[in-house]
């Protein structure tokens, strides 16, 4: 069972990853980490999108993506994309021993989707690793 | 004549929206429950983050499409999406919560258009262990809002209780029939749809 607040050390590590993605990938204007049930964990957003609301929606979208993937028998959803005139939003689960987090990346519409996918996946696995390490150290038994 | 009717279940986290749909759906319900990381708000393992969906055919060839909402206020964007085209709303109250009357105002308020149209019902759960507020207290609160919304007790784990709630809701909707016909009218639906590029 997860406590109400994410431990400070984990939160710091996540903040670092979010900032790093934002800094290293040109065109990325925001990144949000949320719990699977839609609570904000960490974010950087350049435009006026509200990270709290985006977190809730990210939880819904990832869950809906997985539900609809099962429904049409194409297996497990890998990611969900919202492609709009003004930009791209990519959402996916954070792969870890416990399915607790989702990540969303917001980018300008001239951003290469392949690169965005690759970078977001990289960030998600780093975060997943950090989460797993924390779980291994703190969730004995 | 056969038609499809969309109903929405609303209410606080843990009030039993998913349970209610499970109790009466004739198809395996579509669920979007994930791990609940906020055990302080309600201590259960899973919580709905997008929607629940179930179906129930009534004897007269009407098919109910049952939609369950997520309960937490941060998901209020789903509430307005789901209110779209709904014929009625069932507001579930968990009487063991700190302020059930405030919950009533919040969740009924979110579906105010349906409530104003006489297409809402309030079902109160856990009254056996938490008799207060009483049904009268809820009725008084509704009166003060000028709303004609029935209130009844229900244990949504029991199929018959949920069916009873729906029956009272339908009686209420029929009593305001022109509303029901407006929703059934395809042209009305087309007119109400957002124009291209809008919304
Ligand atoms: N004791 C008791 N338990 C009830 C009653 N009604 C519902 N429950 C239980 O309360 C819980 C309700 O959980 P859900 O159906 O997931 O609630 P929900 O409204 O879908 O919650 P969210 O999706 O998280 O907003 C279930 O464990 C039910 O068995 C009742 O009248 N009495
Ligand atoms: Mg639910």
The CATH class assignment of chain A is Alpha Beta
Order of helices and strands of chain B: EHEEEEHEHHEHEHHH
Amino- and carboxy-terminal Cα gap of chain A: 12 Å
**What is the CATH third-level topology name of chain A?**
Beta-Lactamase
Bound molecules: guanosine-5'-triphosphate, magnesium ion
Structural class of chain A: alpha+beta
Oligomer: heterodimer
**Order of strands, widest sheet of chain A:** 2-1-5-4-3
Given the structure, what is the number of helices of chain B?
8
- How is the CATH topology of chain B named? Rossmann fold
CATH superfamily of chain B: P-loop containing nucleotide triphosphate hydrolases
Which CATH class of chain B? Alpha Beta
CATH superfamily of chain A: Dynein light chain 2a, cytoplasmic
What CATH architecture of chain B do you see?
3-Layer(aba) Sandwich
Spell out the helices and strands of chain A N to C: HEEHEEEH
Tell how many strands the DSSP assignment of chain B holds: 8
Say how many strands of chain A there are.
Answer: 5
| Mean pLDDT level of chain B | 91
Query: The biggest beta sheet of chain A, please?
Result: 5 strands, antiparallel
Give the class of chain B from helix and strand content and strand pairing: alpha/beta
Can you put this structure into words, describing what you see?
- The complex is a heterodimer of chains A (141) and B (199).
- Chain A is an alpha+beta fold and 141 residues long.
- Chain A has helices spanning 8-24, 51-71, 113-138, and strands spanning 28-35, 40-45, 80-84, 87-93, 101-107.
- Chain A has a single domain (8-135), classed as Dynein light chain 2a, cytoplasmic (Beta-Lactamase, 2-Layer Sandwich), CATH 3.30.450.
- Chain A is 45% helix and 23% strand.
- In chain A, strands 2-1-5-4-3 form a five-stranded antiparallel beta sheet, with helices on both faces.
- In chain A, a hairpin with a 4-residue loop joins strand 1 and strand 2.
- Chain A is globular.
- Chain B has a single domain, classed as Rossmann fold (3-Layer(aba) Sandwich), CATH 3.40.50.300.
- Chain B is built from eight helices and eight strands; from the N terminus they run βαββββαβααβαβααα.
- Chain B has helices spanning 17-24, 76-83, 100-110, 112-116, 135-144, 159-175, 177-184, 186-192, and strands at 4-11, 33-35, 46-48, 52-57, 63-68, 88-94, 120-125, 151-153.
- In chain B, the strands form two sheets. A six-stranded mixed beta sheet of chain B has the order 4-5-1-6-7-8, sandwiched between helices. A two-stranded antiparallel sheet of chain B has the order 2-3.
- Chain A binds chain B through residues 1-2, 4, 35-39, 52-53, 55-57, 59-61, 63-64, 67, 71, 98-100, and chain B through 30-32, 34-40, 47, 49-51, 70, 72, 74-75, 77-78.
């Amino acid at each position: 069972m997860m406590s109400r607040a994410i431990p400070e050390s984990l939160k710091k590590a996540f903040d670092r990853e979010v900032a790093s993605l934002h800094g290293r990938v040109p065109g990325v204007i925001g990144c949000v980490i949320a719990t699977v049930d839609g609570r904000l964990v960490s974010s950087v957003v350049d435009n006026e999108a509200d990270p709290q609301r985006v977190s809730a929606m990210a939880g819904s979208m990832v869950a809906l993506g997985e539900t609809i993937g099962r429904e049409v028998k194409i297996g497990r959803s890998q990611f969900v994309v919202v492609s709009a005139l003004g930009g791209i939003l990519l959402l996916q689960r954070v792969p870890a021993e416990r399915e607790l987090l989702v990540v969303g990346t917001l980018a300008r519409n001239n951003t290469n989707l392949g690169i965005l996918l690759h970078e977001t996946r990289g960030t998600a696995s780093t975060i997943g690793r950090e989460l797993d390490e924390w779980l291994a150290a703190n969730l004995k038994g | 004549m056969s038609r499809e009717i969309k109903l929405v279940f609303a209410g606080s986290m843990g009030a039993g929206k998913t349970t209610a749909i499970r109790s009466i759906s004739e198809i395996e319900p579509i669920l979007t429950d994930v791990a609940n990381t906020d055990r302080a708000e309600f201590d259960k393992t899973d919580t709905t983050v997008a929607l629940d969906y179930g179906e129930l055919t009534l004897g007269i060839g009407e098919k109910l499409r049952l939609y369950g909402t997520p309960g937490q206020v941060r998901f209020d964007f789903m509430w307005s999406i789901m209110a779209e085209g709904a014929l009625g709303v069932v507001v579930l109250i968990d009487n063991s919560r700190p302020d059930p009357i405030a919950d009533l105002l919040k969740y009924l308020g979110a579906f105010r258009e349906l409530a104003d149209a006489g297409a809402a019902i309030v079902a109160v759960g856990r009254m056996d262990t938490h008799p207060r507020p009483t049904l009268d207290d809820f009725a008084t609160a509704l009166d003060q809002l000028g709303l004609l919304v029935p209130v009844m007790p229900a244990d949504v784990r029991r199929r018959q209780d949920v069916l009873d709630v729906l029956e009272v809701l339908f009686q209420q909707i029929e009593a305001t029939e022109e509303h029901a016909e407006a929703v059934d009218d395809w042209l009305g639906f087309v007119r109400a749809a957002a124009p291209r590029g809008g919304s």
